[in-house]
Amino acid sequence: IVRQMNRIMKPKSVAVIGASAETGKIGNSVMKNLINGGYKGEIYPIHPKADEIMGKKVYKSIKDVPGEVDIAVFAIPANFVAAALTECGEKKVVGAILIPSGYAETGNMKGQEEIQAIGQKYGVRLMGPNIYGFYYTHANLCATFCTAYDVKGSAALSSQSGGIGMAIIGFSRSAKMGVSAIVGLGNKSDIDEDDLLTFFEQDDNTQIIAQHCEDLKDGRAFAEVAKRVSKKKPIVVLKAGRTSAGAKAASSHTGALAGNDKIYEDVFNQSGVIRARSLRDMLEFARGIPVLPTPKGENVVIITGAGGSGVLLSDACIDNKLSLMQIPPDLDAAFRKFIPPFGAAGNPVDITGGEPPITYVNTVKLGLEDPRIHSLILGYWHTIVTPPMVFARNMVEVKNAMKAKGIEKPIVASLAGDIEVEEAADYLYQNGIVAYAYSTEIPVAVLGAKYKWARGAGLL
Predict the structure, then answer these.
(1) Residue 247: inside a domain, yes or no?
(2) Both 351 and 437 in a single domain?
(3) Alpha-carbon distance 158 to 145, whole Å?
(4) Which of 2, 339, 355, 433 could be bridged to 428 by S-S, CB 3.0 to 4.6 A?
(5) How far apart are CA 320 and CA 277, in angstroms?
(6) Could you tell me if residue 134 is left (phi over 0), alpha (psi between -120 and 50 degrees) or otherwise beta?
């Protein structure tokens, strides 16, 4: 699998079957993305009648191409795929990227079985059909009809749906997350989640794997691979079709048999997989988990300037199976030195809203210095005394000063206030503190996801 997937994800040459010079055609978009995306390998357009497309020599058949072809991207209607796939097999192509739809998702099982049989006969791995293609950014490869993508990072994401794939692209660009790969799986006639996990496990450019799926074709194989891979790299899964209505929609969308959700829940738990409950959660986990250092223990402390945020953050901790530390008397006394008499020590530590920046600095510094505390959740309230960017810069300074002393702990923050808190949250995030404006739930959920991975990987 590794040998095949390496050639598919990092090909030296790509053929585009159904390449076109006509704007608006799928074969035209694929060609443009390969060229404009900066792919440095060989690109071979395949078309029965054209001589040249975008400055590239055109071949009537893939069999006419001189030398090896690693992958072929199919941009032709479903009824022409089988014949072209047979030629790929004769050419010893390793991977066929099957964009066309009109297979199992429309009830055309026979058509899908035919291409599966051809793939098996010739040893061609099939990605799809019914997909948008895939990206592998570290090879500047955009083998897709979507948009060229250039924000490189360490998150690898896959989706069974093209629409979800586009959401991944947009979010990762907007949030400056950066990706190593985005892969469409569609009907999963062959390549599925466990093939991708096996590839990403040994891919140095990937640190976290997030997968959207509507079903698992081989649950046992997935569980075995996920259990092994999750010890090294976090795996986030968004399982769609958990309700009967969702399962019904999945069967008409990718021909998926969504299955009993309780079984999926148990399999994910046993495999060390972090389950995302929503698309937003999957994307936020993929972005946030690699930013946070791994906690060394279960003791979480909330420090807040807003009592209301402290209550919601406490609820979120319980929802995400985080353990609010029982503050011992000596630590309680230490916190009380920095907060006003009408504030509240304990957990949450409520420093109250009217406090100057130094109160945030002193309490957070104490939280980082005390070895009994393993993670911090900050609740910030926008005030004239401590404006948002003042808070943000101070928190980053404290964090960096502690890191210089060898102290690193996960810190997440919830910022309540007027729109200036958005810039402050962005600054915090870019500097290693996972922060959100207007939400107490998301930052705690990201911390909870980091803990779930660390527990499963035996790191706590």
Answers:
(1) yes
(2) yes
(3) 16
(4) 433
(5) 12
(6) beta
Q: How many CA atoms lie within 13 A of 239 on its CB side?
A: 24
Tokens 């946070």: give the residue. Answer: 292
178 and 269 belong to one structural domain: yes
Whether residue 274 is found in the same domain as residue 327: no
Q: Are strands 411-416 and 349-350 parallel, antiparallel or unpaired?
A: unpaired
Do 205 and 252 share a domain, yes or no?
A: yes
Residues 281 and 159 placed together within one structural domain of the fold: yes
Q: Which residues contact 3 (CB under 8 A, 6 or more apart)?
A: none
Of 265, 290, 315, the position where a domain reaches its end is: 290
Q: What is the pLDDT of residues 167-185, one digit of tens each?
A: 999 999 999 999 999 999 9
pTM for the complete prediction? 0.95
Digit-coded pLDDT (tens) for 279-301: 999 999 999 999 999 999 999 99
Looking up tokens 């009380």, which residue turns up? 336
The C-alpha atoms of residue 305 and residue 354 are separated, in whole angstroms, by: 8
Whole-angstrom distance between the N-terminal and C-terminal Cα of the chain? 32
The CATH number of whichever domain residue 234 belongs to comes to 3.40.50.261
Residue 138 lies in a domain: no
Q: Residue 235: name the closest of 190, 198, 189 by CA.
A: 198
Of 4-18, 239-253, 402-416, the least confident? 239-253
CA dist 59 and 265 (Å) reads 49
> What CATH number corresponds to the domain at position 48?
3.40.50.720
Q: Indicate the number of domains in the chain.
A: 3
Where do runs of H (alpha helix) occur along 53-148?
81-90, 109-122
Longest dimension (CA), the chain: 83
What domain range is 402 assigned to? 299-456
Does pLDDT of 258 surpass 70?
A: no
Q: Which of 405, 399, 450 is nearest to 427 (CA)?
A: 399
Shared domain for 174 and 286, answered yes or no, is yes
